[in-house]
């Protein structure tokens, strides 16, 4: 007995809660281990920047890759939800790029590399990330296809304009933003307050996605919720570190690395694997439907062929005995006549039951019909495949024997009589009259008339004879 939808829903929610508890406990254990157990150390700038640069490069790659996937998948599925997240991650990716190039100890590319500039870029990127996922909740499962395709480019241009604005203002006029880090002092109150605001946005996003998961039970949403949960712990680390090169700051970046791995998996599942599996399923369904249709067509074709064969049989054969009818006899005779060459001879045998009326009167018409069938069966066993037995009506039959002289026809007639004498039940006999084409007539009516005269002679001689 299967589980109900309600029970399955509860089990899936319990499974998600268990995953979140495990993720939270692992992240909390790492965070508490660094903050409370004395594992927070400062590293050399060379070592820290090497690890930091690799992590940031990966995050930037995932962000830009995510945008590329959503950009092209939007053309097929019109999922503005995915496209919106892609735009947000595109902006975050570029800002993260500015962030690690502005880190203290990196070369001066955009402006003077210092901890305050790097932290300002970081905070702006985290705010954009949190706002992107929080806002995306309202677009989930909504298909928005722009009337004009270049509207996508307008949104892209707006996103890139925001990126350029952040680059210019932070690099060349950072006084527009609060100071985030003071060398030899650490994080400012403004930085701490903004980090808590980011955490609040992330918590709100988690709650929103939990609500979505209750409604849709989509595995993709589990990954997004896990990503946001890890991001919360990442922000806790960024609130607590004292030195930009210490273990706590590194742990925050490692949490970011883990969250971006989950983002990559989530986007891959939702925008690549899921559509591909749907395509495979659709193709398989189409193939099955096509096979079923082909089988149905073949079945219908067989039925039509069988119906056509039955129709041809009904037109050309006697329905009771299976012998050909008078019309088909004429067609076959004319074909033989048309193909005849000099010296060709054919024979016909006119057959008539002896005292057939007595059989019907004595045994009934059902037995009489069986006798007619028996006669045709015996005849078909004796004659060649090229020969034909035709029922002209009642108990009157005609045999058409191509390329057979009179003596050959006589042999056939005797075989039929002898075979009937062995198996006919009730016993019955037939009389036969032979005519040879073209000696006894070139036309069908003349030839059949001659065969009927011979049949009459056989009856006069005492029946059950071949004349």
UniProtKB/TrEMBL annotation:
The keyword Coiled coil applies. GO terms for molecular function: diguanylate cyclase activity. The keyword Ribosomal protein does not apply. Residues 344-467 form the GGDEF domain. GO terms for biological process: cell adhesion involved in single-species biofilm formation; negative regulation of bacterial-type flagellum-dependent cell motility. Keywords: Coiled coil, Membrane, Transmembrane, Transmembrane helix. Pfam families: GGDEF, MASE3. GO terms for cellular component: plasma membrane. NCBIfam families: GGDEF (TIGR00254). This is Diguanylate cyclase. It comes from Desulforamulus reducens (strain ATCC BAA-1160 / DSM 100696 / MI-1) (Desulfotomaculum reducens). The lineage of its organism: Bacteria, Bacillati, Bacillota, Clostridia, Eubacteriales.
């Amino acid at each position: 007995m299967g589980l109900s939808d309600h029970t399955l829903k509860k089990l899936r929610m319990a499974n998600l809660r268990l995953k979140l508890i495990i993720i939270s406990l692992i992240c909390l254990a790492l965070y508490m281990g660094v903050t409370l157990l004395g594992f927070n150390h400062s590293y050399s700038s060379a070592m820290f920047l090497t690890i930091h640069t690799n992590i940031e490069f990966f995050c930037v790659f995932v962000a830009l890759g995510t945008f590329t996937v959503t950009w092209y998948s939007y053309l097929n599925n019109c999922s503005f939800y995915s496209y919106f997240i892609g735009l947000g991650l595109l902006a975050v990716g570029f800002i993260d790029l500015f962030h690690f190039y502005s880190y203290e100890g990196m070369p001066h590319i955009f402006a003077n590399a210092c901890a305050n500039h790097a932290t300002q870029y970081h905070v702006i990127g985290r705010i954009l990330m949190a706002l992107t996922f929080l806002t995306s909740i309202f677009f989930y499962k909504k298909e928005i296809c722009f009337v004009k395709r270049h509207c996508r480019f307008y949104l892209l241009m707006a996103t890139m304009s925001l990126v350029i604005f952040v680059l210019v203002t932070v690099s060349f006029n950072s006084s527009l933003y609060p100071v985030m880090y003071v060398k030899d002092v650490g994080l400012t109150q403004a930085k701490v307050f903004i980090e808590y605001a980011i955490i609040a946005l992330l918590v709100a996003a988690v709650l929103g996605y939990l609500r979505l998961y209750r409604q849709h039970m989509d595995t993709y949403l589990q990954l997004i919720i896990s990503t946001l949960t890890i991001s919360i712990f990442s922000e806790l680390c960024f609130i607590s570190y004292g030195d930009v090169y210490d273990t706590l700051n590194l742990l925050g970046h490692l949490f970011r690395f883990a969250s971006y791995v989950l983002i990559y998996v989530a986007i891959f599942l939702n925008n690549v694997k899921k559509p591909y599996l749907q395509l495979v399923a659709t193709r398989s369904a189409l193939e099955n439907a096509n096979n079923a249709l082909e089988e149905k067509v073949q079945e219908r074709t067989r039925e039509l062929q069988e119906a056509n064969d039955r129709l041809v049989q009904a037109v050309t054969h006697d329905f009771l005995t299976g012998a050909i009818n008078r019309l088909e006899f004429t067609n076959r005779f004319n074909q033989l006549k048309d193909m005849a060459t000099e010296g060709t001879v054919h024979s016909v045998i006119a057959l008539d039951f002896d005292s057939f009326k007595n059989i019907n009167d004595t045994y009934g018409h059902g037995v009489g019909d069986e006798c007619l069938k028996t006669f045709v069966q015996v005849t078909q066993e004796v004659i060649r495949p090229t020969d034909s037995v035709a029922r002209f009506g009642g108990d009157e039959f005609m045999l058409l024997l191509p390329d057979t002289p009179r003596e050959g026809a006589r042999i056939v007639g005797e075989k039929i009589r002898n075979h009937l004498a062995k198996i006919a039940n009730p016993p019955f006999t037939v009389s036969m009259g032979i005519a040879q084409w073209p000696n006894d007539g070139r036309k069908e009516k003349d030839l059949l008339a001659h065969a009927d005269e011979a049949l009459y002679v056989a009856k006069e001689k005492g029946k059950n004879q071949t004349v």
